[in-house]
Amino acid sequence: MKRTHTIDLLRGLIMVFMALDHASALIARTHFSEMWGVPFKGYPDIFWWFTRFVSHLCAPGFFLLMGMSIYLFSQKRKEAGWEDKNINLYFIKRGGLILLFMFFLEFPAWGLGFSFSQMPPDSGGGMPGNYTGGFLIPTTVLYGLGMCMIMAGFLWKLNKYILLFISCLSFILSGYYVSNSLPSEAFHPLEHMALVPGMSNGSMTIYPIIPWLGVTTFGMFLAQILLEQKEKFYNFALGTGVLFLISFLGLRFFEICNFQLNTFDDWISFFTLIKYPPSLTFILVTCGINLILLFIFSKINDSTFVKPLQLFGQTAMFFYIAHLYLYALMSIPFPLGSGIVLMYLLWFVGLIILYFICREFLAFKKSKPLDSLWRMV
Predict the structure, then answer these.
(1) Would you say 212 and 63 are in contact if contact means Cβ atoms under 8 Å apart?
(2) Are 355 and 40 in contact (CB under 8 A)?
């Protein structure tokens, strides 16, 4: 079973958009957090809205493609003679490694970037929960990815329709829980970690497990279809993506499934969606666009101009850590933040630097045996 280059290409594009979002936070000192239950003051103009909107493809794309990769990897290793327990152990180790990266590599990078800032990131109306001080375990997207990888590593043997059922159930459970909670409540740390983003005594969670596990299992569902119907899969992805976008338009027009009512009066506010936790409208539009992009990449995956995206997609975790330190260092001259034009320029320069760094790392990574920890980076 060969590596699926369309997945690498889409993952690479997502890394590029993610780098833009983090360059915005670190260099321009401007970032937005579309959080449930708290006021969101909106985007300053269309350019900042666009900058944030393209980044919305990232988190759903990460979890969706991770689910696909988990299933495809498990099948590839079974063909190579791995036992089920060895495959399970692999995902436990890799998920655990992601969590270690969060604490020991990612957090210092954010600390470096914000240590030179003379202003907090512009993030909107704060976080739900009731934090009164004391011990706090912060988490980032790597927490959600690591935990979902560990859990999904035990689900890859399930039938695709059971995986689809898990996806639907996760959003029903998340939606019901959030809709029946008050943002000012003091949540238990495990509630934050499992279900509801926010900050209460003991925990600050942005990416809880259950809703994002649903995106992961949907990716596993898609991967099973890919192996069963290789010739028809990308047309299926296109059709599903278009259906998702149509469903999004209907739900958003009637203000359903966005965790907030009366939230739009123009087209920018129409596309202002609750990301934390991922509302159904958010998932439909972002996964819909990702699936359409997957179809497009299936048609151009041999083109030379997309090769840098493939490189970024094959070194995603290394890219993630490296880009945080790079943009943190590039942010030092801008304690009060840069303008948006200069931020875009520095973002692009950073991508060029990252291309050469990732190229060297990929060569190093491929020189290691299949069971090496370097293969998990």
Answers:
(1) yes
(2) no
Residue 294 half-sphere exposure toward CB, CA atoms < 13 A: 30
User: According to DSSP H, which parts of the chain are helical?
Assistant: 5-26, 46-55, 58-79, 84-101, 107-115, 141-152, 160-179, 189-194, 209-228, 233-253, 267-270, 280-300, 307-314, 316-330, 340-366
pLDDT per residue as tens digits for the range 104-162: 999 999 999 999 888 755 545 578 999 998 889 999 999 999 999 999 999 999 999 99
Count of Cβ atoms closer than 10 Å to residue 121 Cβ: 18
Helix (H, G, I), strand (E, B) or coil at 3: coil
Between CA 6 and CA 144 the distance in angstroms is: 24
Please name the helix (run of DSSP H) or strand (run of DSSP E) that holds residue 205, with its range, or none: strand 202-205
The DSSP letter of residue 306 is G
How many residues does the structure list for the chain? Answer: 377
Q: Please report, as a single letter, which amino acid is at residue 261.
A: L
- Please classify residue 110 by burial: count the beta carbons closer than 10 Å to its beta carbon, then call 0-12 exposed, 13-18 middle and 19+ buried: middle
Give me the DSSP letters along 322-362.
Answer: HHHHHHHHHTTT-TT---HHHHHHHHHHHHHHHHHHHHHHH
Contact 306, 297 (CB under 8 A): yes
Per-residue HEC secondary structure of 141-171 comes to HHHHHHHHHHHHCCCCCCCHHHHHHHHHHHH
How many CB atoms are located within 10 Å of the residue 43 CB? 21
Give the tens place of pLDDT for each residue, 23-34: 999 999 999 989
The Cα–Cα gap between 320 and 361 comes to 13
DSSP state of 200: E
- Model confidence over 118-132: pLDDT tens digits? 875 554 557 899 999
**216-249 per-position pLDDT tens digit:** 999 999 999 999 998 899 999 999 999 999 999 9
Strands of the 202-205 sheet, one edge to the other: 136-138, 202-205, 198-200
**Alpha-carbon distance 8 to 337, whole Å?**
33
Say if pTM beats, i.e. exceeds, 0.85: yes
The answer to whether the CB of 147 falls within 8 A of the CB of 209 is yes
Q: Among all chains, which residue has been given the structure tokens 């935990």?
A: 147
